[in-house]
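Hey,
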Amino acid sequence: MKKVSFLGHFAFGVDKANGQTIKTKILGEELKRQVGEDQVDFYDTMGKWLFVLKMPFILLHMLRNYQNVVIQPAYKGVRLIVPCLVLLNLFFHRKLHYIVLGGWLPSFVGKYPILRWSLKRLDGMYCETHLIQNELKALGQEKLMYLPNCKQLSILDESELTTSSKAPFRVCTFSRVNQTKGITEAIEAVNRINREKGKTIYTLDIYGLVEDEKWFRNLMDGQPDTIHYGGIIPYDQSVSVLRQYFCLLFPSYHAGEGFAATMIDAYAAGLPPIATRWRSNPEVVEDGVTGLLITPHSVDELVGKLQEIAENPAIIDRMRPACVKRAALFQPSSAIAPLIQNLK
């Protein structure tokens, strides 16, 4: 009998760059590294209805042949996978572990009583932030542990950090491209500053998967050449791209925001974020130390921060060393420790 089976969205054979797939692959590889290459097997949730049809047989196989079953489902699968797994485990008594993706689960749990019952029967739920952990605890969930988001990145050395002294300052967004990630607000803030000053103070590059092509085309239509879409950057190239920028803009108000992986990319590149006080962001960004915090939806406040750091770029440069130090906390080798310690 092998030690660990890991069920998640690996997207084998498909080039996927979304956060869920990236995190699944990173944690899977770290499990193999720490537990043993021959002691860990992966099972893919990709396939929608085809996976749903196969799911009971996959779960049954995992319970029969592995001491530990680790799952990392998204919201579309959690209310099917967790109850089915718990019920089947009444016959096998394996250790069940659930790595929680993002910050949507607390609001989701209340809708499904059978899911609440099932989650209490797991041996471990691993949350990206303490906020999510506390919200689930308030809903009666137990065996909650902190396992922060993580990425295997080459963190810049402090000697590699650059400084910025004069305009134009290059800023970027680096997340899924949708309205709730604050892309519209980022564009509006940069355009307003440049318009008020009568010259280019900032340029904005937008990176990431565009989720609504029509909305984004309309948004970009007529934008000045200071606003540019840069496409999707492979996660292992994020540091080399982000190190070229002055700061990261993350004015998100996304309802399911957890520990945004873009923060790890930014920290590894020595790039302080300007982020909203939204969900778990204040837990990840230490205001004035590793980045700056603003009120959600407030273009005025974002404009004010951008004007302040343009007039005094040393504010950003002083935070760069703290960013690369913080990035070390979110390497997979250390982040995954609570799960490793809880394996049978």
